User: Fold Clp1 P-loop domain-containing protein from Oryza sativa subsp. indica.
Amino acid sequence: MLYLRTPKRCFFFGDCSAKKNPKLLLSYIFSLYDYFLKELYRFEDTDNPNKSAIPLVINTSGWVKGTGLHMLTEMLKYASPTHVIRLRTSVEGKNLPAGMFWLDEPEGDPAINLVEIRAAQHSPRHLLVKKEARIIRDLRIIAYFRQCLPMEFPVFSYNDLIQGFASIEPFQLPLSKLQVIDLHSQVKSLDLSTFSTLL
Assistant:
């Protein structure tokens, strides 16, 4: 089971595709990278336990064409990575362009270590495991909400998660403890009793 760490900083984008607002998504990515450099990463300051000397790993979601490829190019230009690992598939149309495609110089940059891992040749289609975005999103949701349940409670599927939440006693707040406040004035007690009858 996946367990997610509480993020130091995150942004809510609200969509699983970058097509609707790529500029906003890029600004979020750049802001996260800047935060990492400023607050977390200090290679020269290795004695400080709050500053990390470990590398930042960026998973690019397999964007190989269209808006995704443009965004990947912008991300690589902005982050200026020292190492790029490209995983290739046997379907040529699902691979990134050859070489250091994000650089303006066609010969590339000798300071960048480009590692290419080729796909196994002629694998039968039924042996290739297709990781669908929907399944990965489901796993992340289960992992996130899993934190609300006791560790000994087994969660392997959505049904287990639902059973776990159904077994938790809900938080109760007496109606007498509720107070409704208007921005400009206090709500009259008569109006509050009318409100409570609607509940």
Q: What stands out?
A: The longest helix spans residues 22-40.
